[in-house]
Amino acid sequence: MNESLSEKTLDTFPKLLLSHARLRPNHDAIREKDLGIWQSWTWSETESEVRALACGLASLGLERGDKLAIIGDNRPRMYWGMTAAQAIGAIPVPLYQDSVAEEMSYVLDNADVKIALVENQEQVDKIIELKERCPKIEHIIFDETRGLRDYDYAFLHNFEDIQQKGREFDQSNPDFYQQHVDSTHGEDIAIMLYTSGTTGNPKGVVLTNDNCIITARNGIIREGLTDQEEVLAYLPMAWVGDNLFSYAQSYVAGFCVSCPESASTVANDLREIGPTYYFAPPRVYENMLTQVMIRMEDAAKIKRHIFHYFMAHAGKVGVSILNGESVSLMDSLLYKLGNILVYAPLRNVLGLSRTKLAYTAGEAIGPEIFDFYRSLGINIKQLYGQTECMVFICSQPDGEVYADTVGTPSPDVEIKINDNGEILYRSPGVFHSYYKNPEATASTKTEGGWVHTGDAGYFDDKNGHLKIIDRAKDVGKLNDGTMFAPKYIENKLKFFSYIQEAVLYGNERDYSTAFINIDLDAVGNWAERNNLAYSGYIDLAGLPEVYQLIKECVDKVNADLAQDSRLGNSQIRRFLILHKELDADDGELTRTRKVRRNFVAERFEMLINALYSDAEECHVATEVTFEDGRTGMLEADIRICNAECYPLKSSPQEAAA
Amino acid sequence: MSERQLGDTILEVNNIGLSFGVMKVLDDISFDIKKGEIRSIIGPNGAGKSSMLNVINGFYHPQEGTITFKGETRKAMAPHVAASHGIARTFQNIALFKGMSTLDNIMTGRNLKMKTNIFWQALHLGPARKEELENREAAERIIDFLDIQAIRKKPVGKLPYGLQKRVELGRALAAEPELLLLDEPMAGMNSEEKEDMSRFIIDVNDEFGTTIALIEHDMGVVMDLSDRVVVLDYGKQLADGVPDEVRANQEVIDAYLGVPHE
Amino acid sequence: MTFFIEVTLSGLMAGVMYSLVALGFVLIFKASGIFNFAQGVMALFAALTLVGFMDEFGMPIWLAIIGTIAVMIALAWVIERVMLRHLVNQEPIILFMATIGLAYVLEGLGDILWGSDVKMLDIGIPQGASDWMLDTFDIYIEKLEIFAAATAATLVIFLAIFFQKTRIGRALRAVADDHQAALSVGISLHTIWVIVWSVSGIVALVAGIMWGSKSGVQFSLSLIALKALPVLILGGFTSVPGAIIGGMIIGVGEKLAEVYLGPFVGGALENWFAYMLALAFLLFRPQGLFGERIIERV
């Protein structure tokens, strides 16, 4: 009874904060590593920081419905900015901190941002540069003072000054804060998150307090999370996942969130914090595994033998043990020994010793990577989610974890699949609207509250889990009518550690072809072990031996595809290795590192033409952007290689022969 | 860089002459450095730039001339006098304590800021411990300032070149110097690293008001950063003035700038 | 089996003694790159001085120890003044020769001051077998040896903290790493040398006390220095843990070799086993067990 009452009344983030400050005042709410030491703030300290900031924002003129942009790395002050805005009915809009000024200006303008809370000089400079184009921005508040001493602008404020102003305001208006918090409601807008769509301008997803809080709570209940969890907030604040895991769920469950010292120290901070609850995109798990493997190759012989022996044993029984299945006594004892010698130290190095629950999502994860972590005893699970519903659509229940599915629907989520294979869902998390974009809202969210995911998939017959193949619009057809699911094949390719990125083409063509990006670390290491000399990325990518290595990977994927009667004809006939890494700065990837297939196709049109001809080589010149923003030309001769294609398993001709 | 108000003279060298045997390395060099400025010494290879820094921080003892630092005139400096009076430096070929971590290198830079005697040090107790903590905090501020948190515990010998240069700057900064001597801080760096380093130099000058004497090859960098420039050539002083004056000086153009360089 | 354990343990304890001498070497080598041939003689000199203070001046033990420490510090100061200061930047071999000279001077000085007869040193370290070990494990082991091991352990922990966590420790390492850079941050080389030789003198005193208590203070004590050489080759010249573990390996190795192999090769194996082992190491792992591998980064 009481519980449901409190759930009803605690329907906004500022209300949740007040309640934690009362219920667990001395429990740590947020931590940050600064000057080499973890500094922490309890819930009651957080409450007073947020209160001062909220009053300060109000005294700067931020009112109900106004937008506060938040731009910076994961920092306590940035998170406080969210709650402070929410407390006075304003709406926080976190932005990707590594966006260039151009990208930022659209969002700042589209979102009608009035005040920007930013981390440092870098961001201040960007916004000052944009200010003329975004006249709606009235004030900028910065956290770090470094380099800003000589900036003399009336609209620029120090975070601490604003808080001080807020405290004075609070003194003279003692009821202001409480009254405003009391007047926030579950159906009010809590936050706007811009999605970095693969085409067109980003869209502002408007989420209400109910969307966020109910979804967060459902996730907590499903996984049995408590206020004792430890979480590392290291993914961009503008991304819905960070907002769920590091903000919404922390506020609902009351657990502590830690902010890393800097982007470059995340691995170390992870080890120090030892999160119990962890999220990472597949890429991060892949990188960690690659690092471990490279380190093991360099280790002493004995160490390497022990490692490989016990990893093989873990591969045999580890997953079963984690799934709670019974294994023989001998295997179980050997696993326990392995745990002392290898698994536990390894988990510690990875920073995952205390992890009860690790999620991954966003892309498909390689089965052997997935199994590697699970066999170590780390409970890594896949989930399927979108910004439009505050993440959760599906996740894998304990004991039912498979590398190729995304699990069963999350609590309160309904799923249906329409005629062209697209997945639709309905849940309490379903977003309010796209900001100032009724057409897009209407086309995504149907009258019944069903949301088009744009993903194609089906429920697996064996286990009833949802399986995602590809983006619905990306699923095309070869000229012979075979279904062409590029992402599905790309993922199969990317599961090889040598392949960093793959881009498949084939829609409305005679056959499939692929662009490959090699993984510089893995292939470079391989080349060194095989005594191959190379001077850089381009050189490495062009080596005949590397082509042979990649060809073997492509051949394996083809053999795999040949097993599938629906996709078998989309085997890769020809491929090439690109001379440059696909890069977000060149627009080839989105900020979340997804390939923009059509953009890449236009940019390398010559290469595509060559792939669909008999050419064995193609000269290409590409304009590239360096990290400092300058541009230059990159030229290379790229070889094109034919891959092995296998007869379809169920092909009738083959059966006859 | 806008015109800035320069402070009083902090260092003045007068008629410095330095020879090794018959070789005259510096011949009648005179210039001054004012509080808060970025002062560059430029010149072709072998012009005597590094020798000049070595004279200032006491590694070399000139045969002629005087050095006046903070009002005190000497025939020559000694390294520990220079260090204890607020002169810190970096080296052209990086002279870090390679076996030690980044943090320990920077802590060593605070050597003169730490006073407790060997007795307390030996016991690692009482005042020594407190002092250690205070200085650790100062070192951490520098680590934060230079954005090198990720290599705090790494032995510096294994770091890439650009980072080593940064750690060396950190060690010099740790002494909270009044005058910072930088010997080719950007040598061997790529353009991105150079940009970072320029940023740090400007920030050091801005944030801490540190006076900086800089030797650098990259003319673009020198002209951008410096308040005033002194030009040496074969141990002789060719010119001295603000970047625009120096750029316009015919002798300098002939000897140095006129020569096309990479 | 008991016998094997006894031999091993007694080897271990003897090894600790070697370690103590080797430790003094390592300290000086690390900080100044000097191979101090006089380390063994310093142990002898310290022990002689201690006995002298106790016997001839009738000082109580604690005062005699403090007095000896003062003498060792003064000695370090004199060495820096008279010897090191004038040899800055000289070839290592010249510095090494200088320490040979130092060894003779110290030996002579000890002889002149305190005489050349064998002296007993008793500073109250318990003697005889440890009853507890005998009762519980049925193993015979000297109390002195246990005491020596404990002292060595304490000393090493103390030195490790001193080197890692204090300003002076860092300064010592800095000087070892790069003289010029050390000067530029205001470290005085002279002070550092005095400190390092003092510390090493104190370590020598400890070694001298242990050996002296065991077999009397006599001039053959300085010959232990020679045993420390293989220890250093084994452990690496720059590693404190290397000196400790190297000492133990040599100690155990030579005792076991003497007992189990001695009969086959006609005995006296104990005298040259250590050198054989060192030779083998020089061939296969010249940097020693813990020494820094010499890799130049280009």
Give a verbal description of the structure.
The complex is a heterotrimer of chains A (657), B (262) and C (298). Chain A contains 23 helices and 28 strands. Chain A has 657 residues and is of the alpha/beta class. A 5-stranded parallel beta sheet of chain A has the order 4-3-5-6-7, with helices on both faces. Chain A has a 5-stranded mixed beta sheet with strand order 12-13-14-15-16. Chain B has 262 residues and is an alpha/beta fold. Chain B has a domain at 9-86 and 177-257: P-loop containing nucleotide triphosphate hydrolases (Rossmann fold). In chain B, 39% of the residues lie in helices and 24% in strands. A 6-stranded mixed beta sheet of chain B has the order 6-7-8-3-9-10, with helices on both faces. In chain B, strands 2-1-4-5 form a 4-stranded antiparallel beta sheet, with helices on one face. In chain B, helix 7 links the parallel strand 7 and strand 8. In chain B, helix 3 packs parallel to helix 6 and helix 5 (126-145) crosses helix 6 (161-174). The longest helix of chain B has 20 residues, at 126-145. The mean pLDDT of chain B is 87. With 298 residues, chain C is an all-alpha fold. Chain C has one domain: ABC transporter involved in vitamin B12 uptake, BtuC. Chain C contains 12 helices and no strands. The N and C termini of chain C lie far apart (53 Å). The model of chain C is unreliable at 293-298 (pLDDT under 50).
**Number of individual domains of chain C:** 1
Quick one: CATH class of the domain at 2-204 in chain A?
Alpha Beta
Q: Identify the overall geometry of chain A.
A: globular
CATH architecture of the domain at 2-204 in chain A: 3-Layer(aba) Sandwich
CATH fold category name of chain C: ABC transporter involved in vitamin B12 uptake, BtuC
Shape summary of chain C: globular
